[in-house]
Design a protein that fits this description.
Shape: globular
Strand content: 15-25%
Number of strands: 14
CATH architecture of the largest domain: 3-Layer(aba) Sandwich
Number of helices: 9
CATH superfamily of the largest domain: Type I PLP-dependent aspartate aminotransferase-like (Major domain)
Radius of gyration: 21 Å
CATH topology of the largest domain: Aspartate Aminotransferase, domain 2
Strand order of the largest sheet: 2-10-9-8-5-3-4
């Protein structure tokens, strides 16, 4: 059976060449006589894999020397708690921007640890169909950090700018956007991202944190949530997600071979433009997000007649276009077009959409 174009929001597609390399190395990684999944994380073979992956990620993102790169477990959702545990540093207040489902979850978790969570801006009144403009962000002045979600996976809303914080550390949940384009790491105090969208398989979480922000966790912080413990142990205080880390390293190599994040950004812009143009040029499809704030990665859209949703999904699956059903809280359709989604996949979706409109519209 031919491989499908998988538009899932995560776990998502991986580059085919990465999967092929992992397949070739499955029984014997470089003469070791072992699969990577069987290796001790303390062995010299695996230590070389981990070190090379970190070096490649640092190169791709141009991570400054005063930042730690951590390869953790627990998903991005565990970071909703780990961030306040580590970054309050004697304070009790934090600022959060609310732009959708994942922002709301981060805010809810932070309230367990902060006596004051200031919602510095929210777009809930618009049903999360836009990002706030800079003037709408009202910082509290005594916050330990400002947290935001640059790309909301469910609503398909993306910030076109990096918020200014006046020196307050900026924290970003980049689960659905990290590695999709270049970013200036120095603008952030901490970035975290679940791997299962642009980085690798589920089970791995990346944290990039400025060194001066770690080492003062709140009392009672579990050892496994203490960034300094992980930093001091090269992310190997316990057994890490070894195979996911290895596959992420292969993805980093793939990105470098492609030309790095500058090249990836151009490809991602083309893919998003192709899909949005198909939606906007039709009265049969619609995207609810303000055009200036549309996501490159997650494209929700609705059909003019929702009664046709099931037929659309059935026809798409027959055309090898899968996982297009929108999140239950939003409805409609959602096409997630992360790095590993080839341009041919987006073109195939657009072709199907036009043919479905011709026959059903």
């Amino acid at each position: 059976m031919a491989r499908v174009y998988n538009f899932s929001a995560g776990p998502a597609m991986l580059p085919e060449s990465v999967l092929q390399q992992a397949c070739d190395e499955m029984l014997d990684w470089r003469g070791s006589g072992m699969c990577v999944a069987e290796m001790s994380h303390r062995g010299k073979e695996y230590m070389s894999i981990a070190a090379e992956a970190e070096a490649d990620l640092r190169e791709l993102l141009n991570v400054p020397n005063n930042y730690k790169v951590l390869f953790l477990q627990g998903g991005a959702s565990s970071q909703f708690a780990a961030v306040p545990m580590n970054l309050l540093r004697g304070g009790s207040s934090a600022d959060y921007i609310n732009t959708g489902s994942w922002s709301k979850k981060a805010i809810s978790e932070a309230r367990h640890y902060c006596s004051n969570v200031n919602v510095a801006a929210t777009t809930e009144e618009s049903k999360f169909t836009r990002a706030p403009v800079p003037a709408e962000i009202q910082l509290s002045g005594d916050a330990a950090y400002l947290h935001y979600t640059p790309n909301e996976t469910i609503e398909g809303v993306e910030f076109a700018y990096i918020p200014e914080t006046g020196g307050c550390p900026l924290v970003a949940d980049m689960s659905s956007t990290l590695l999709s384009r270049p970013i200036d790491i120095s603008r952030f105090g901490l970035i975290y991202a679940g791997a299962q969208k642009n980085i690798g398989p589920a089970g791995l979480t990346i944290v990039i944190v400025r060194e001066d922000l770690i080492g003062m966790p709140i009392a009672g912080t579990p050892t496994m949530f203490d960034y300094k413990i992980h930093a001091d142990n090269d992310s190997m205080y316990n057994t890490p997600a070894t195979y996911a880390w290895y596959l992420a390293g292969l993805v980093f190599k793939w990105l470098k071979d492609l030309g790095g994040l500058d090249a990836m950004a151009i490809i991602n812009q083309r893919k998003a433009a192709l899909l949005y143009n198909a939606i906007d040029s039709s009265s049969f499809y619609a995207n609810p997000v303000q055009p200036t704030d549309r996501s490159w990665m997650n494209v929700p859209f609705t059909l003019a007649n929702p009664a046709l949703d099931d037929a659309f999904l059935k026809g798409a699956k027959a055309a090898n276009l899968t996982t297009l059903k929108g999140h239950r809280s939003v409805g409609g359709m959602r096409a997630s077009i992360y790095n590993a989604m080839p341009e041919a996949g987006v073109a195939a979706l657009v072709e199907f959409m036009r043919e479905f409109e011709r026959t059903q519209g």
